[in-house]
Task: structure prediction
Amino acid sequence: MSWKIKYPSQLLDFFEDAQHLREITLNQSIPTSSDAPPGRVVRLPCLESLAIDSDAVHSILLNHLSIPFGASLLQEFDFQGDKSPLLDFLPKALENLGNASPITLINLCLDETEMHVQFGGPSGRLYMHGNWIDWDEGTSSVLDRRILRSLNRFILSGTRRLAITLYRSPGTVNIDKSAPYYILSRMKDLRTLTLNRCNNRPFIRALDPIQNPSKCTLCPELEELVLYVKDLNSFNIKELMSMTKERASAGKKLSLIRIVGLGELASGGRVFKLREYVTRVDYRVGEKPPRWDDVDN
Result:
C-alpha cells in the first residue's frame, strides 16, 4: 500500500475485511495520531510478513494488530535524540507480537548512523532498522545503553545466542548497574555471546562471579565467547583471565573463547594462559566479522 491513511481505523477496517492477507507492505501509510479505541485488536491469521517504513510512530498501528506465530515483522524508521527508539516503535502490549516469543537469538548492531535489532526464534522474526537523524555528537553511549536496557521488555530467559556490534558505552564501577549486567542477568539459557568491535569490558566483568555482589554466576549455560577486536589492547586481558578463572572455580568452565584481531595483533602469549580455565582457545588474525544478520547462520 502506498496511499496516505488519515486514521488508523480506516486501515484496521480494511484488515478486518481481508483476513487472508499473507504479505503486507506499508510505505509512509501510518497516521501520526490514532482514533482507534485502545481495546481494538485486529487479527491477521494468515499473515506471513509485514513490512513498515514510516516516519510516524509504529506503535500507533501495532497496538491494534496481532502478529501471528511464524510471521516476520520488518520495521524501518528515522529517529533522533538519545531516547531508545524501541519503546516507541513496539506495541504497548507485547502479546500482540506472537512472532517474538520465545526468543532464541538477538542481534544488536549500533553504528554512528544506523541501528539494527533482530529477534529470532521458532515463532518468527522481528527486525527493526532505524536511522539516526540530526545526530548530536556525544550522545552515542547514552543511546547505546538505553537501547540495550530496553530489551528488557521481552522475555529473554530462553535466548541462546546474543550478538552485539559496536556497543560503545563505558563500563561502570557498579558493574551490577551496567546495561550489560542488566541484560545478561536475565539470560539463564545463553550459550553463545559474540561481541564485535564493542567495548567488551563491561560484558566480561558482568560474566565474572567475583564482580557480582551476590557472587552468582550469570549465564550459567554459557559455552562460547567470541570477541572481534582491533588488537589485543582493545580489551583487558586481565579481566578476561579473572572472569574465566572465577567461572571455572564455580564449575562453569567455558568450552571455547575465540579471539579474532581485525588488524595487526600485539604479542598474544598471555591469551594462551586462558587454556588453564577454558577447554579451547581459538586465536586468529584478520577474519572478517559477521554481518549483523549472520548470527543465525
Remarks:
- The chain has a mean pLDDT of 86.
- Helices lie at 8-16, 59-62, 86-89, 140-149, 179-184, 201-206, 237-249.
- Residues 156-297 form one domain.
